[in-house]
């Protein structure tokens, strides 16, 4: 995985960027670095990347402001913020805003690499959940209105008889709709239906 991962580094100090680039490339990562948040945001390929390492305090757009802009742009990039001495309050604010970790300078190389691996694992998990949710929503979209009604009642644990009563149809009709919707959704049983509903955000 690390050979494919792109790490975005944003720091206004060239020496820091060069140091991080050397470390990350030696660890097998690809690196894209920027001297300022604005330079990153102006890049048409800004959304490309698997993890971001950003200084929390920079001239112009700060690391926190950049993080807020990423959310507005729906750029789902795990963020690790780097802080100088005395910036811990800012780091905590960044984490409340969604940053996964913060590292206080100077930090050990291994600490940064471990934080990046955690961020990449979280990124993979997020992408997997998004893909699962999209697939579940698409398959539910194949159902007719009546099949969707039956489906919604089924995943709440209601019996065919109760669903029939609630919808004003016969239990036999419920059975027919259930068989059809399970076939469309490639669901072997009720457990499969419940998993699909949960993935699509229809159960909490």
Number of domains: 2
Strand segment count: 5
Derived structural class: alpha/beta
Question: What is the CATH homologous superfamily assignment of the largest domain?
Answer: Response regulator
How big is the Rg? 24 Å
Please, could you describe this protein's structure?
With 204 residues, the protein is α/β, with parallel strands linked by helices. Helix 6 crosses helix 8. The mean pLDDT is 88. The chain has 2 domains: 126 residues, 3-Layer(aba) Sandwich (Rossmann fold), CATH 3.40.50; 59 residues, Orthogonal Bundle (Arc Repressor Mutant, subunit A), CATH 1.10.10. Helix 4 links the parallel strand 4 and strand 5. The protein contains 9 helices and 5 strands; from the N terminus they run βαβαβαβαβααααα.
Output the keywords.
single chain, alpha/beta, Rossmann fold, Arc Repressor Mutant, subunit A, 2 domains, five-stranded parallel β-sheet, elongated
Task: Briefly summarize what is shown.
With 204 residues, this protein is an alpha/beta fold.
List the helices and strands and how they pair.
Layout: E1 6-10, H1 14-26, E2 30-34, H2 37-42, E3 51-55, H3 63-72, E4 79-83, H4 88-96, E5 101-104, H5 109-140, H6 145-154, H7 160-167, H8 171-184, H9 190-199
Parallel strand pairs: 1-2, 1-3, 3-4, 4-5
Helix pairs in contact: 5-9, 6-8, 7-8
């Amino acid at each position: 995985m690390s050979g494919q991962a792109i790490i975005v580094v944003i720091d206004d100090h060239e020496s820091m960027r060069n140091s991080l680039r050397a470390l990350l490339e030696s660890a097998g990562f690809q690196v894209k670095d920027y001297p300022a948040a604005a330079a990153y945001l102006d890049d048409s390929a800004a959304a490309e990347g698997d993890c971001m390492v950003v200084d929390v305090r920079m001239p112009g757009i700060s690391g926190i402001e950049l993080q807020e802009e990423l959310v507005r742009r729906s750029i789902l990039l795990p963020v690790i913020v780097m802080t100088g001495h005395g910036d811990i309050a800012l780091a905590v604010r960044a984490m409340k805003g969604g940053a996964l970790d913060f590292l206080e300078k100077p930090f050990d190389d291994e600490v940064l690499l471990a934080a990046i691996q955690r961020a990449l694992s979280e990124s993979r998990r997020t992408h997997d959940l998004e893909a699962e949710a999209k697939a579940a929503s698409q398959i539910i979209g194949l159902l007719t209105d009546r099949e969707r009604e039956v489906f919604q009642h089924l995943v709440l644990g209601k019996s065919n008889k109760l669903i029939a009563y609630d919808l004003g149809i016969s239990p036999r009709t419920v059975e027919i709709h259930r068989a059809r919707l399970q076939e469309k959704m490639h669901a072997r049983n009720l457990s499969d239906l419940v998993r699909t509903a949960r993935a699509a955000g229809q159960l909490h």
